[in-house]
Structure formats: structure tokens, C-alpha cells
Amino acid sequence: MLSKLYKWTMSLADHPKALWALAAVSFLESSVFPIPPDVLMIPMILARPSRAFLIATVALVASVLGGLLGYGIGALAFEQIGQPILQSLGKGDAVAEFNTRFNDFGFWAVLGAGITPFPFKVITIMSGWSGMPMAVFVSTAIIARAIRFFLVAALLWKFGAPIRDFIERRLGLVTTVFFVLLIGGFVLVRYL
């Protein structure tokens, strides 16, 4: 089933209303949809590099708005909707333990999930469920998703097709390493 969903999502990149499809996928990916918007962004930017930053902006705005839906699911309907979504992702058992520590690291959790391939919907739902202040959630989601989508757009705009393979295969690793180095830098600054 996931393979069919992936192929369907890829076919949307060639559609005349691809920006609308990207907005829909970006919105839904932040709360319930399993396929990340990158699978639409990459072929769309490669096809029309002059629109790279418009495409990234559409993904950013829709993703943050979808994150608000995920936040709302967590805050208002966790038992009915949020818990089953997290169960389907294999994250249901860790919910209670996660909630006790989440708000201590909430900014970093949202930032990390927004940049890396970690399912953003998990963090958006957990942010609402754990009562993270909405202003912190929204501002961090904007920063994280902007870094992710504009990094992809800039790399594809600058380097074009040769970077596609690198992005599809190793972006998760690179952004995870970047995130670890960023946190490490803050820890070093704090304790030195």
C-alpha cells in the first residue's frame, strides 16, 4: 500500500496544479499523511529551477498550517485520533514516558523533527497533547521547516539534477549530523 501511495504522490509532481498538490501533501504530512513533501518538491524544482523558492515557500506555509492541525489533534482529540496515528507509526507505547520529558526539550524536539526525516506529525501531535505553548511550537516549526525546505530548494537551484541523488539518499543523515553538531555547539558554549 505504501508503494502505491508513493507512486501516486510522485505522479502529482507532473500535474498542472502541482503547487496545490504540494500544499495538500505538505499540510497533511504534518498531521496524518505518511509521505514527506520532498518527493514532490524535488521533481518540481528540477523541472522549474526558477520556481525553487516559491515551491519551498508553499511547502513551508502548508506544513506549518498542517502542524497546527496536528497540534489540535493532540490537544483536542488525542485519544480518538492522535493515539491511533501514533500507534500506526509504532510510537504509541512511548507516549507516557515521552510526555514527561517532552516540554523540557520541546523546542529541540520540534526543531529536530522539522529538519530531519523523523515523522513531523508525531511531534505536532505530541506538542498539542503535552500542552507545549503554541507560540513556541509555531515559531520553532517555522524555523525548522524553513531550514529543511529552503535547504533542499537552494541545493537543487544551485546544483540541479546531480544533487537529486544525494538529497534523496543522504539528506536525512546530513541534517541529523547538522542537528547533532548544532546541539553540541550549544552545549559546548554553555559549559565552556
List keywords for this structure.
10 helices, 192 residues, 80% helix, mainly alpha
Q: How many alpha or pi helices?
A: 10
* Percentage of residues in strands: under 5%
Largest sheet: none
Q: What's the gyration radius in Å?
A: 17 Å
Count of discrete structural domains: 1
> Element order, helices and strands?
HHHHHHHHHH
**Average residue pLDDT:** 77
N-C termini distance:
51 Å
**Unreliable sequence segments:** none
Residues in helices, as a percent range: over 70%
Number of strands: 0
Structural class: mainly alpha
The best one-word shape is globular
Protein name: Membrane protein YqaA, SNARE-associated domain
Transmembrane segments: 53-78, 105-129, 135-159, 171-191
Pfam family, one: VTT_dom
Keywords: Membrane, Transmembrane, Transmembrane helix
